[in-house]
Amino acid sequence: MRERRRGPALENFSASRRGERSGTPAGFPRFQAKGKVAPRFRLRNRATPGRAPSSQPIRFSDPSHLRLPKFGPLKLFGPTRKVRRMIDAGRFHVYSATLTQRAGRWTVSLTGVAAELHQAERSRTKRHAIPVGVDRGIISLCVAADANGVSIESFEGVTTLKQAHASLNAANQALARTTPGPKAANERSPDSPNDIAKSPIPDDTWSTRLPRPWLSVVRSS
Fold first, then answer.
1. C-alpha distances in angstroms, 73 versus 61, 63, 67, 92?
2. Which member of 20, 149, 151, 187 has the greatest number of CB atoms within 10 A?
3. Over 80: is that where the pLDDT of 196 sits?
């Protein structure tokens, strides 16, 4: 693996020194320190040209399993529908599979070459007969119109508006809870009878002492 990577790395370094390589200047290749990079390795798909995808070393045995050389079928957690359809249709050829460990999980990445997709083959379903332009507005979320300015379809953004209203209602409720009381209660006189705390008086005889003046109140049933 290191020998195969060293050749292209030295070639990129030499081309960068000669000025034949565009972009960021490439430095001299060096080995990566163990323990400072994510563990990874690559498996090559040594397949004979013209062979069926089902007979290649790297292939999908079913929608949730990827077969790798020396490992066999591996369970996948993720959608594989698009890449499987491209491989079955002959529009994608796998060159290699790279396995990387991140956060205790292994991620597999397939590298290969894909056939160019013609513009006429894109989005066959739900395609309008003429091209349209999309304009974002204030009242409506967006409006689609043709070259003459005739509106074809308008998207109101009902779901986004409902979510915004729900957030606004929650904010209003939170603000109402922080207010000490209603406006009428705040403007009430402090000497109002409603502000005097009333304690329930038990039926039996009781006695209590007031702070000032020092009086004793006694009530008999």
1. 7, 11, 4, 20
2. 151
3. no
